[in-house]
Design goal:
single chain, about 200 residues, 4 helices
Length: about 200
């Protein structure tokens, strides 16, 4: 019985091997095409998946860059608003006060108005009409000169200070951004105060 089982198993193995071989010979081309199509589809899927991953990675990087740019713009906007506020509340008022006092000193109208007041009729040192006219003309010219000079000088000094403070603030912002430290308003205020003192002197 063992021998017959062994012969039957060997015969069955030979028949199945022959069947596989015959199947391979008849369907070899179809199998190659099927394996080629499946392999090509797999490779195309991998390329497509890698392409999608790369596109999504690039989109994430672009979104992060845009977010960083917007954050940087917002920080810069806040920084320059603080600079303008500091210039408007600290530097400009003191400078304008100093400028108006200097214009009043250089173009003093008090001596002309005093002469006109003292030269009114009824007093011993009255002025002749031609002297009054001359004093009035000088007073008009000096008043107009004072007005024009004040407007021009205040505009020029205001523009000059704003430009100076913005340039200094930009450099300070870049320096603090390079140090990766936060904005230090105390350091900036000391710097603006020093700038204000040096501009007045």
């Amino acid at each position: 019985m063992k021998i017959s089982t062994l012969i039957l198993t060997t015969t069955t193995n030979n028949i199945s091997y022959m069947g596989y071989r015959e199947f391979w010979r008849r369907h070899k081309r179809k199998l190659y095409v099927s394996v080629g199509v499946c392999g090509g589809g797999y490779i195309l899927y991998k390329f497509y998946d890698a392409y999608n991953k790369r596109i999504s990675q690039l989109e994430r990087q672009l979104a992060e860059e845009q977010e960083n740019d917007e954050r940087l713009k917002a920080q810069m906007q806040m920084h320059f608003e603080n600079i303008q506020r500091i210039a408007n509340t600290m530097t400009l008022p003191h400078t304008m006060l100093y400028l108006s006092s200097r214009v009043a000193e250089e173009l003093d109208l008090l001596h002309l108005t005093d002469k006109l007041i003292r030269g009114k009729g009824g007093q011993s040192n009255t002025l002749t009409p031609s002297e009054k006219l001359e004093l009035w003309d000088r007073l008009k010219i000096l008043s107009f000169t004072r007005l024009v000079l004040s407007i021009w000088a205040m505009t020029a000094v205001s523009l000059y200070i704003r430009i100076q403070v913005n340039i200094i603030g930009r450099h300070l912002y870049i320096d603090t951004a390079r140090d990766l430290g936060g904005f230090q308003p105390v350091r900036f205020l000391h710097f603006i105060y020093f700038f204000h003192i040096s501009s007045v002197l």
